[in-house]
Amino acid sequence: MTLKIKYLLIIILLCNYSNSQNLVIETPTFESPENKYFKIYEEDKIYNPIYLNGNVKTVERKYEQHSSIYGNIAKDTKIYMYKLNDSKQIISYVSSNEYDDKTIESFNIKNEFTTKKDTIINQDITEYTFKKGLLTLEKETDRFHGSIDSIVYNYNHYNKLIEIKHYQSYGIHKTDENGNVDENNIVFDEFEIKVFEKVTYNDSNNLIEKNKYIIGYDIIEHYRTSYLYNDVNQLKTDEKVFKKYHRDYNNEQGDNPINWYLKEINLTDYNPLSWKTTYEYDNKNRIIKYVETFVQDYGKKEQFVWENGNCTIDYDDKLHVRTINTITTKKSSSTSEPKIRELNYEYFFDDLNNPVKILNYIVQFNEKILDKSTILNITYF
Question: Distance between CA atoms of 227 and 224, rounded to whole angstroms?
Fold first, then answer.
C-alpha cells in the first residue's frame, strides 16, 4: 500500500468519525396516550413559533403577571422576540427574561439519524447498534468513572417498542507490579438489571398497560399505568399506581422483576399512592372534560384526595379551544371542608387558527380576576 493511499484511508476514517459525532440519535421511548390531551392548551405554538400555522416571519410574545389575589406575587412583564426564515427555522431569539437559558438551537427541529440497515454508530463513549433500522442497543462505557451502561430495546412484530432493559456494570482499576493504578486496565463486574420497562398493547394496537421497575440496592420502585378505551378507541381512563418493595436477592430469577417474588412496603412517607384520570368527548370526538384524581397518604396523620383539574372545555366554530375551566379540590381526612381553586383560560385565534391572546383568570366568589396574560404579535411572509 502506497503512502498516498494510507493517508487517504486515514482521512476517510477521520471524516466518518467526525460526522458520527454530529449525528442526532433519538433514543426510543414509550408512547403516553394521555399526553395528547394537554395539547388543548396550545403550549407548543405559544412557546415555539416553528409550530405555528402559516409562513411565520416574526413573533413577539408578551407575558404579563397581573395583580394576584394571593398578594405575594408581584406584577411582571417579559418580552420574547423570534425571527424565522422561510424554511420556518428560528434565526434570531431575544428575551427580556434574565433567567432564560433558551438558545436558537433548542427551538429548531434537528435532523435525526435514520437508517433501514444494520448499523453501528460510535459517539464519544456511546455505541448505538441498529438492526433493520431500529435502535436495539445503546452502550455507554465510561472508563473514567469505571462503569458501563447497557440499554436493550425490544420491539413487537409491528416494530413498536415493547420493552426496555437497562443494565449496569461497575469496574475496578487494576494496579501494576509497583502498586500504581493502571487507568487503562479495568475489570468490570457482571451486568445487573437496574431499570426494567414493559408495555402491553391490545388487538387494536392501543397501549393498555405500562410498567416500570427501578431497582435499587435494597428497594424496588414500581410505577404501573393502565389505560381503558371506549368503542371508538378514544382514551376513557388512565390510572397510575405507585408501589415500593423490599428487594430479596434470594427470590430473583432472571432479569424480569414482574416474575420476582416481591414483598410490598406500606407507603406512609408522603407518597402519592394512585392517580386516575377520566375523559369525556362530544359527538364530534372532541375532548370536553377530564378529571384527574390522586390520593396522597400521610400515614396515620391524614390522607389527601385531590381532584386536580376537573376540567371542562368549550370550543368555537373553528374547532379550536375557546375557554377552559379547571377546578382543583383538596379533601383531607382530618377536615370536613375541602379547599377549592378555580381557574379559567380564554383563548383567541387569528385567521390562520394560531393563538394570539390567552387570558388566565382566578375565579373567586363567581368573580373572574385576571391573573396572567400572553399576547402573540405574529407577522407572516
Answer: 10
CA gap 228, 206 in Å, rounded: 9
Yes or no: say if 290 and 277 are a contact pair by the CB < 8 Å rule: yes
Residue 324 CA from chain centroid, whole number: 23
CB distance 83 to 99 below 8 Å = no
Return the closest-CA partner of residue 320 out of 296, 293, 286: 286
More confident residue, 291 or 330: 291
Q: Which residues contact 62 (CB under 8 A, 6 or more apart)?
A: 77, 78, 79, 80, 374, 375, 376, 377
Q: Is 107 helix (H, G, I), strand (E, B) or coil?
A: helix
> Is residue 11's pLDDT more than 60?
no
Report the DSSP beta bridge partners of residue 332. 304
**Adjacent-strand bridge partners of 374:** 63, 358
Q: Which residues are 200's β-sheet partners?
A: 209
Mean pLDDT (whole number) for 144-170: 94
Burial 139-157 (b: 16+ CB within 10 A, else e): bbbeeeebbbbbbbbebee
Cell numbers found for residue 323: 375557554
Cα torsion 362, 364, 366, 368: sign: negative
Of residues 381, 325, 375, the one with CA closest to residue 350: 375
The verdict on pTM exceeding 0.85 is no
Strands (E), 202-302: 207-215, 219-229, 235-246, 263-265, 272-281, 287-297
Taking residues 271-282, report their average pLDDT.
82
pLDDT at 295 over 80: no
Angle CA(256)–CA(136)–CA(255) in degrees, nearest 5? Answer: 10
Confidence at residue 301, expressed as pLDDT on a 0 to 100 scale: 47
- Range 69-78 average pLDDT: 74
Give pLDDT tens digits for 173-211: 777 777 777 777 788 888 999 999 999 999 999 999 999
Within the chain, where are the H helices?
3-22, 43-47, 104-107
